[in-house]
């Protein structure tokens, strides 16, 4: 399925206009993780400003926003039983994740596949399918189409135990993590 991204702005007279309209870059499946895809929809810096002709933030150094900034990601999770076949190369998959999602890929734990944590407050909306959110100590929550999750910088992993892909839209807001004990 092709996802179209439309970006608006203003013309020289201040009237609203379409700046760009076309396929969302980065929606193609990962090579080393068949069925998985993740695209940066948009990213804003801290204290974002409305500009007439916004540039495309797809070439960001990191998809993880700085405190006060935001990122929107569109992610498709294949069913778990399709994700790691006999030919699966975890090192190649990790390298591709780091290349395609800089700043996020490096946060995944090698010793606990899928687990990661970011200094963000995340809003996740299940667009299609169903997926399980896994937290520490095996705690889980099943999310279905239309469900919303708010994550407060928690360590987590996503598990698609179903037989169809799950598609989610995430909005990450950069936050500061207090020292432990606060």
From TrEMBL:
Residues 114-171 form the Cupin type-2 domain. CDD domains: cupin_BLL6423-like (cd02231). It comes from Zestomonas carbonaria. Pfam families: Cupin_2. It comes from the Bacteria. This is Cupin type-2 domain-containing protein.
């Amino acid at each position: 399925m092709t996802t179209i991204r439309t970006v608006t702005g203003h013309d020289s007279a201040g009237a609203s206009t379409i700046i760009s309209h076309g396929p969302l870059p980065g929606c193609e499946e990962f090579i080393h993780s068949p069925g998985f895809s993740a695209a940066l929809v948009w990213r804003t810096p801290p204290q974002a400003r409305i500009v007439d002709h916004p540039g495309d933030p797809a070439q960001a150094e990191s998809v993880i926003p700085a405190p006060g900034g935001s990122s929107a990601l569109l992610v498709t999770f294949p069913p778990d039983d399709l994700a790691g076949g006999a030919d699966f190369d975890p090192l190649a998959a990790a390298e591709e994740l780091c290349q395609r999602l800089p700043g996020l890929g490096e946060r995944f734990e090698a010793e606990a596949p899928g687990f990661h944590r970011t200094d963000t407050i995340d809003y996740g909306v299940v667009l299609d399918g169903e997926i399980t959110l896994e937290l520490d100590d095996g705690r889980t929550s099943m999310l279905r189409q239309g469900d919303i999750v708010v994550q407060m910088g928690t360590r987590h992993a996503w598990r698609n135990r179903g037989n169809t892909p799950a598609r989610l839209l995430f909005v990450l807001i950069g936050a500061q993590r207090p020292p432990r004990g606060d």
